[in-house]
Amino acid sequence: MKTTGLKQRVSTRLAFLAAGMAMSSWAPLVPYAQSRTGVEAAQLGLLLLCLGIGSLMAMPVTGVLAARYGCRRVILWSGLGCCVVFPFLAMAPSAPLLGLTLFLFGATIGTLDVSMNVQAVIVEKDYGGALMSGFHGMFSVGGIAGAGGMSLMLWLGMGIVSASVVMTMIVAGVLLVAGPQLLREAPAAERDAPFLVVPRGAVVLIGVLCMFVFLAEGAVLDWSAVMLINGGMSGAQGGLGYAAFAVTMTIGRLNGDKIVQRFGGRRVLLLGGLAAAAGFLIVVLAPSAWLALPGFALIGCGASNIVPVLFSAAGSQRDMPAGLAVSAISTIGYAGILAGPGLIGFVAHAVGLEWAFAALACGMLVVATQARRTA
């Protein structure tokens, strides 16, 4: 008997939308934070690690909190915490206070991320069809809306504190609309899950594959502009690579449920991994920066539905309760985003950025080869 319906599916999409808006709204504030605190680029990098550390510390326990107290409470409380903390990112006057604020912001975002994915897994299983890509697609839409909205308000001359408060109110409004239909209780089988367990079985494999994909996504975010500028583009044009990636990823995810429903998760993982790997190779081998742009677009297209399929697989595996599995997979995967920029930089310094991107192509090929074992 189904326990969820259209209202729960809509509320889940709204939670993903709110999370995407909250997370991406920080990006336009980074230059202002650096100027206000007076830190150098290297110090700023260390401060930004505080956000990731906060997320990594919160993620492992969120699954069991959602199981014991219901997704609704955890999503709303973490969302409220995010809204309370966010304006202080625009006000923190010193590096220590900014680091503490980023840590708290990361913890609330990490908790929100895992709890909404736990809800997504439950809703999708009850629905009996593919929904995860659409949920993650709304996160991408939220990312565009959050970063674009903040940038627009700042461009129009609004102060950073005022703009952050406005964005906070929008995010809070979206969560309040979603709140009444979020899941109040987890399935009975989830409620007695232990507080913390070591990942095992298929969960480890799924988490590692997510890490490869997140590492690839983070590399495009952090290094695509450098790659294109090294290839001859101007600084103003360097962002075109990530733009091409983000557009195809968002389109792919918004249409992903139909694709997964028609072709199956296994085929999506296989073809998506191969397409993303081919995209990285195009970027590496392209004779000019402009010819590398289709490669970034292909990476976004190929990678768009891999993580949603892997999260769906987390809900279907039998080695761990679904809530704990989502927590573990999120933590392992997020470690790829956290370590990715430094790892890519180290490889690039040692042998060149082209070889680092070629290694990412190999990682996506690994994802493709494991399609049969995971989906």
Automatic annotation (TrEMBL):
The keyword Transmembrane helix applies. The chain crosses the membrane at residues 12-32, 44-67, 74-92, 98-123, 135-155, 161-183, 195-216, 236-256, 268-290, 296-315, 322-340, 346-368. Residues 202-375 form the Major facilitator superfamily (MFS) profile domain. It is a multi-pass membrane protein. Keywords: Membrane, Transmembrane, Transmembrane helix. It is found in: Membrane. The keyword Cytoplasm does not apply. Gene3D superfamilies: MFS general substrate transporter like domains. Its main location: membrane. This is MFS transporter. It comes from Duganella lactea. The lineage of its organism: Bacteria, Pseudomonadati, Pseudomonadota, Betaproteobacteria, Burkholderiales.
